[in-house]
Specification:
42% helix; 91 residues; three-stranded parallel β-sheet; Rossmann fold; alpha/beta
Length: 91
């Protein structure tokens, strides 16, 4: 997935939810770069989760192969959104 595709996908999610995701709860199933691995290098989920958090969404992320602290660190890296909005990681 290139940068344009990640941006387009994230915008489409917002568009499909009536152009606002503030205080809406969104589940992300999967965070790794590829299935059956904990590899998050260049995972599109990093960009998409940051975008959704910045738009005000409440995220619930599930990926049994990726460690919780890795998902939170990658999604919230230097982002004010994590302190302002609910962020839950399930495993």
């Amino acid at each position: 997935m290139n940068e344009y595709q990640k941006s387009r996908f994230a915008r489409k999610v917002v568009e499909r939810l009536f152009n606002t995701i503030t205080d809406k709860t969104i589940a992300m199933l999967g965070f790794a770069f590829k299935k059956n691995t904990g590899d998050t290098r260049e995972s599109p989920a990093i960009y998409i989760s940051k975008y959704l958090l910045e738009e005000g969404a409440k995220l619930h992320i599930y990926d049994p192969k990726v460690l919780k602290d890795v998902m939170k660190r990658l999604s919230c890296n230097n982002s004010q959104a994590c302190s302002r909005y609910q962020y839950k990681i399930s495993q």
